[in-house]
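Contributing new records

If you add data, match the layout below exactly. Sequence lines come first and carry their own label; structure lines follow with theirs. Keep one chain per record. Anything else will be rejected by the validation script.
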Amino acid sequence: MAYSTKPKMWFWIVTILFLVWNLMGVGAWTAEAMGSTETLMENYTAEQVAFYTSFPIWYTWAYGIAVFAGVFCCVGLLFKRKQAVMLALISLLAVVICRIYDLSVDAWNMMETADRTFFIVVPVLSVALWLFARSIKSKGWLK
């Protein structure tokens, strides 16, 4: 089926929503990566702070790759670039790596309800962004 090469209005809306989501992820990553233990203690118990600060440095890098690749993917989509699909896949793979580690250290039991919600929502939206980018590429809207 032939598609128009001009993106529809819903493309721009969805892309901007994904961009805002990923920018929130950059904010969360910055707060966690650059924040102090005292800042974390305001919201978490001492046991939770010890647990979260024990994550290896590669985890923080993978988390950063996930959110920044997601932002760059969305910017790529706004500029209608095919590289957005690869960036979405990189973001998804980084999210999967983080979630596998989280499951291996039983992070679920240390999480509050809001954290558990994000634990599920983040990979779901990462898959959705990748599928969205692939769909847009197959429509011929990316160059």
